[in-house]
Amino acid sequence: MGQYRKHVFVCTTGATCPTQADTEGFVKTMRAAIAKAGLHEEIRINKSGCFSQCGNGPMVVVYPEDVWYAAVRAEDLEEIVRSHLLGGHPVERLLYRPGKPGPNVLAKKDRR
Amino acid sequence: MGQYRKHVFVCTTGATCPTQADTEGFVKTMRAAIAKAGLHEEIRINKSGCFSQCGNGPMVVVYPEDVWYAAVRAEDLEEIVRSHLLGGHPVERLLYRPGKPGPNVLAKKDRR
Question: Which of A12, A106, B59, B91 could form a disulfide with A47 if both were Cys (CB 3.0 to 4.6 A apart)?
Fold first, then answer.
């Protein structure tokens, strides 16, 4: 048995995600929203290192359900929290669908 | 669909785990073992922030299966890699069983 119903990992210390957005700020924003909902004992938001998907981020991963989000912006966080973390419905438009498992580091020329 | 068959998170930047052992070294050791086994595309080892289990660590968590290890020592890593990550059999003697979900921060007087 795990400790959390949902355990969210945000890439904050990889080489790329933190250059694309204030991902440390993502953690603060989501933690505050979860605390406000009174669910900090069931839902944990964590900082994480690189997931080897560089160029596709900022990356946010929700375990144990194994839902991956890519290219997350600060303005998406409210929907991720409301729809997915609190409501149980992943945000389809933000789902990461690279078409293959494993590492998936984009060449610099292919990055947005 | 997630990116990794096993995604391992080691607390390296919490306030307590890194004081109990060289948990950055845990990441290096496990990554090297996974690379040697040729499985770095299927098994990812990540650094992580605090899981709010302070005093029970060093903590190592394996998702998506949601297997938690506590009080991990450097000399346990070979068995975790061989038995669990490569062999599929979690190491029973190291499993974290606090008896309750959620945060579980030990008072300083109760820590080993």
Answer: A12
Residue range B74-84, pLDDT digits in tens: 999 999 999 99
Is residue A47 within 8 A of residue B13, CB to CB? The reply is yes
Is the separation of the CB atoms in A98 and A104 below 8 Å?
yes
In chain A, what is the greatest distance between 2 CA atoms, to the nearest angstrom? Answer: 44
Dihedral sign for Cα atoms in the order A83, A84, A85, A88: positive
Report the complex ipTM: 0.95
Instruction: Find, among B41, B39, B45, B42, the residue nearest to B25 by Cα.
Output: B45
Best CA proximity match to A2, nearest among B65, B52, B47: B65
Q: Taking CB atoms and an 8 Å cutoff, what residues of chain B touch A46?
A: 9, 48-51
